[in-house]
């Protein structure tokens, strides 16, 4: 089974940036199945950004223009570059490959 390991979360000020990483184990890397979700306290887990078959990307409206999902196929890693962070971006961010979930990484945006 593929293992997903997230990293890169932390505490940042509003307007700051973070880059999350999701490293996928295995001999075959199908990045087009992968995406990022987040869950804030008291809220349902929601899609943030993902690849779809063919290599296109989907973003939730609230992060369009600020977040970018990308991949390094050599490293078997998917990234989420988060710019212009807002307090409402505070959540635990999870990587998903279509079936499995990573352990999550906390992102806190606060002054």
Q: What brief labels describe this structure?
A:
111 residues; mainly beta; 6-stranded mixed β-sheet; 4-stranded antiparallel β-sheet; globular
Explain briefly what this protein structure is:
The chain is mostly beta strands. It has strands at residues 4-7, 10-12, 18-24, 35-39, 46-51, 57-59, 67-72, 77-82, 91-96, 105-109.
Number of strands: 10
Report the major sheet. 6 strands, mixed
What is the succession of H and E elements? EEEEEEEEEE
Q: Give the overall silhouette.
A: globular
- How confident overall, as mean pLDDT? 95
Tell me what the structure shows.
This protein has 111 residues and is mostly beta strands. It is built from no helices and ten strands. The chain has strands spanning 4-7, 10-12, 18-24, 35-39, 46-51, 57-59, 67-72, 77-82, 91-96, 105-109. The chain has a six-stranded mixed beta sheet, with no helix packed on it. It has a four-stranded antiparallel beta sheet with strand order 1-3-8-7, with no helix packed on it. Strand 4 (35-39) and strand 5 (46-51) form a beta hairpin.
């Amino acid at each position: 089974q593929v293992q997903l390991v997230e990293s890169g979360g932390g505490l940042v000020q509003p307007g700051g940036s973070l880059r999350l990483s999701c490293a996928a184990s295995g001999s075959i890397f199908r990045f087009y199945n992968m995406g990022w979700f987040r869950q804030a306290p008291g809220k349902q887990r929601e899609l943030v950004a993902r690849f779809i078959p063919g290599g296109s990307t989907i973003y939730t409206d609230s992060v369009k223009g600020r977040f970018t999902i990308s991949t390094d196929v050599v490293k078997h890693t998917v990234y989420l570059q988060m710019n212009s962070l807002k307090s409402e971006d505070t959540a635990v961010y999870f990587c998903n490959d279509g079936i499995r979930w990573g352990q999550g990484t906390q992102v806190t945006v606060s002054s």
